[in-house]
Structure formats: structure tokens, C-alpha cells
UniProtKB/TrEMBL annotation:
<dbReference type="InterPro" id="IPR006680">
    <property type="entry name" value="Amidohydro-rel"/>
</dbReference>
<dbReference type="GO" id="GO:0016787">
    <property type="term" value="F:hydrolase activity"/>
</dbReference>
<protein>
    <recommendedName>
        <fullName>Amidohydrolase-related domain-containing protein</fullName>
    </recommendedName>
</protein>
<dbReference type="InterPro" id="IPR032466">
    <property type="entry name" value="Metal_Hydrolase"/>
</dbReference>
<feature type="domain" description="Amidohydrolase-related">
    <location>
        <begin position="223"/>
        <end position="380"/>
    </location>
</feature>
<dbReference type="Pfam" id="PF04909">
    <property type="entry name" value="Amidohydro_2"/>
</dbReference>
Length: 409
């Protein structure tokens, strides 16, 4: 890409960055355990294997990975897969991570499969100049607390007994509060994450009655008896976990990330707009809310919330490489329409494969430069201001919001 604005070009393409939301890489022994097509789409089944490879996102990723692997201009997706499979895993990781200039990664290590298949978040320090940190996924914490409590009580017909439910709820609540509080005080933890979007939607209630909470717990337990899988998937119970987190996070000045918008078909798209969070944002004004994944396709909703609430921030991540290049630039333009530039952060949402970090970084840098250069040409800001926007979005905003205390290296 021609450097028509050389100072801005240098800032966008070389400035150190903080990846404010990502997941760990697979271990070498598990490198082929997850289908590589997942790097370009959130789809599953035939929609992933038969359709996603025909998207503009896949065509672009193929060309960029072909260049990374030293392949020719006629490289196919199959060629890319073969090349990566043949490469020694440590070399593949180093090759993918070195060009990113990611200084620090904030890891959500509560993603399903991470514990069994992936390296620890500290293992990734070999790729970054500053130590990486954790983001605690609160629904997983809640499930891990509730399951042994239920198992210890030899649950059978007691799942609807009022006395049992009241006692269980009291014990669960105390342990959940203690766990979230301990995480908030852990220097390795810089924030929390909720996947309420996937479970019951983002319309998180600001309160509920004891009877409603016990009813949701009863429903959860009855489903556990039937399926042998304990999953928080009942609105009043899920919302209670989120509220507990928001309360503690607000006191400790820890951001709470929310999955918004773009995701796989487990979520209900109409309930994934961050606009549904408005009531709870107002109810917890001291708690920093981070709206993940560009809230795509509800990006303008996220920008609006950032513009009117002091405690709301937006992450322009995951659209790299899931969305076409034209779409990526459109998303960044929509973020900049209304959102204050001191509230914009970037992430790769990197996961499983090292190439996801590579694509998530280089495509973000390209799109950010293109949009900011366009804004300078239009007279919306000068090059010096554009440089500051880029540096803030890539590094300084996340550094401040998560209280990382880093200097760019």
C-alpha cells in the first residue's frame, strides 16, 4: 500500500498494539483438532466447509497467507492448508506472530475447548514484549461453582424443592461473589467477559425477584438431570451472574467485555445488538462496558452508546478476517461516525490458529490506514490528528481502560 501519508502509514503499520480480546493457541499436538476454515467464518457444518470458502473474506485471506508462506499468485485455499500443515508448529507460530508487533494480549481463556486443547495464556509471552493478561469469562466461573454444589447434594427430585433451592442459591451467590472479587483483585486479571449474548440475549434485566431467581435455578437443575450437562441458560439466573459481576467490577474499576453482534448460529441475532444493554449500562455507571466484535452488524448502535455514556467503549475486532475488506473499512467508518476516538480499541479475537493473529492484525492495520487517510483527504482531520487516533486505537486506549501501565515498545 502506497504511503501517501508517510507518518500516518508508519503509525498504522508499525506502532505497537494491545490485543484487547483473544483466545489461546492450540498446542502442537492438537494443531489439527479444529478445522482451519473456522479462521474465516463463524459458520458450522456445510455452511463452513462448502460456503465460507467462497467469500471475499476467504479469497483475501488466501492471498495474504500465500504471501506469508512464500507461495505463488495462483495459490488456492487447499494449497494454504497444505503448506501450514507441513510447517513445524513452532516455526508457524513465530512466522505468524512476528509481523503483528502485538505488545500485549488480553486472553479470554474460558472458551470451550481451551482447557483441553490449548496452551496457557502465559505460554504466549514468548511472542509479546510485555506479559499477557487474563479476562475472566463469568458464565464459566458460575457453572464451575454451581456444578460441584449440585453434585454434592445428590440432586434428584429436590430440584424444585423451595427449601433446597433457597439454600443452594444462598451458597452459590456467596461463592460467586467471592470468586469474582478474588479475580478483581488478581493482578493477572484485567477484566471480565460475559457471553450473555449467546445464552439469553443482551437485554440484561436490572433486577428480579427471589422467586424468579429460584425458578430459573430450578429450571437449570431440571435440565441438568435430563442432559447431564450443567449450562447457565435461564434468563434470571444468567442476568444475576452478570449483575454480580458488574457490581464488583464497578467497585474495582475492571472493564466487563460483552460479546455483541457477530457470532456463530448459537446466538439469536436480533438480541445481539448492544442497544439491548442500555438499561444495565445506565444502572451501573461506574462499570466500564466494552462492546466486542464491532457489534457487527449493529456497529452504529455501539457508536451511539459510546457517544452518550461515559462508561461504554467499543472494540473493532473479529471483523478481521470474517468480513470483506470493503466491509471492514465500512465498519471502521461507522465507528468513527459518532464514537469518541478515545473510546475505540482493537482486537484480533485470535484463537486456535496463529494465522488468526496474523490476519487479524495486518487486515486491521490496512483498514485503519485506508479510512484515516480518506478522512484526512476529506478534511475531517489533519495527519497529526489521524496519527493520534491510530495510536490510541491500537495501543493507548486499551492501556488506559484496562489499567495496564505499559509504554509502547
Amino acid at each position: 500500500m502506497a504511503a501517501e501519508l508517510p507518518i500516518l502509514h508508519e503509525a498504522c503499520f508499525t506502532y505497537p498494539c494491545i490485543d484487547n480480546h483473544a483466545h489461546p493457541l492450540l498446542t502442537a499436538g492438537n494443531r489439527e483438532k479444529v478445522e482451519f476454515e473456522g479462521i474465516i467464518a463463524e459458520a458450522t457444518g456445510p455452511a463452513l466447509f462448502e460456503d465460507s470458502v467462497h467469500t471475499l473474506a476467504c479469497y483475501k485471506a488466501t492471498a495474504q497467507l500465500a504471501k506469508l508462506f512464500g507461495l505463488g499468485p495462483d495459490t488456492t485455499w487447499g494449497d494454504v492448508k497444505a503448506a501450514r500443515s507441513a510447517a513445524p508448529y513452532d516455526e508457524l507460530c513465530a512466522l505468524s506472530m512476528k509481523p503483528t508487533n502485538i505488545q500485549c494480549i488480553l486472553f479470554d481463556d474460558g472458551l470451550g475447548g481451551v482447557e483441553e486443547l490449548c496452551e496457557s495464556y502465559k505460554w504466549h509471552n514468548r511472542f509479546t514484549k510485555s506479559p499477557n493478561k487474563r479476562i475472566v469469562r463469568v458464565e464459566v466461573v458460575a457453572q464451575d461453582i454451581l456444578k460441584p454444589l449440585v453434585d454434592a447434594s445428590h440432586l434428584s427430585s429436590s430440584s424444585s424443592d423451595p427449601s433446597y433451592l433457597a439454600t443452594l442459591l444462598e451458597t452459590f451467590s456467596a461463592k460467586l461473589t467471592a470468586s469474582i472479587q478474588a479475580s478483581a483483585q488478581d493482578p493477572e486479571v484485567v477484566g471480565f467477559k460475559s457471553v450473555a449474548c449467546y445464552r439469553t440475549g443482551l437485554d440484561v434485566a436490572t433486577s428480579c425477584t427471589q422467586a424468579e431467581l429460584e425458578g430459573a435455578l430450578s429450571s437449570c437443575l431440571q435440565r441438568y438431570v435430563t442432559t447431564s450437562t450443567l449450562r447457565l441458560d435461564d434468563k434470571h439466573l444468567n442476568d444475576y451472574v452478570v449483575r454480580t459481576t458488574l457490581e464488583i467490577a464497578g467497585r474495582c474499576n475492571k472493564p466487563v467485555q460483552f460479546h455483541t453482534g457477530l457470532g456463530d448460529n448459537d446466538l439469536t441475532l436480533t438480541r445481539s445488538s448492544p442497544a439491548h444493554l442500555q438499561a444495565v449500562i445506565k444502572a451501573y455507571p461506574s462499570t466500564p462496558f466494552v462492546l466486542l466484535h464491532s457489534s457487527y452488524p449493529y456497529t452504529r448502535d455501539a457508536g451511539y452508546l459510546c457517544s452518550v455514556y461515559r462508561n461504554v467503549y467499543v472494540d473493532f475486532g473479529e471483523i478481521f478476517p470474517f468480513v470483506s475488506g470493503t466491509g471492514q473499512r465500512a465498519v471502521i467508518r461507522q465507528v468513527l461516525e459518532l464514537c469518541p476516538t478515545n473510546k475505540i480499541m482493537w482486537s484480533t479475537d485470535g484463537h486456535w490458529w496463529p494465522e488468526s493473529y496474523y490476519l487479524g492484525t495486518i487486515q486491521a492495520r490496512e483498514a485503519l490506514y485506508a479510512v484515516l487517510a480518506e478522512a484526512v483527504a476529506a478534511g475531517d482531520l489533519d495527519e497529526k490528528q489521524a496519527v493520534r487516533v491510530a495510536q490510541d486505537a491500537l495501543f493507548h486506549n486499551a492501556n488506559r481502560i484496562y489499567s495496564l501501565g505499559l509504554s509502547p515498545l
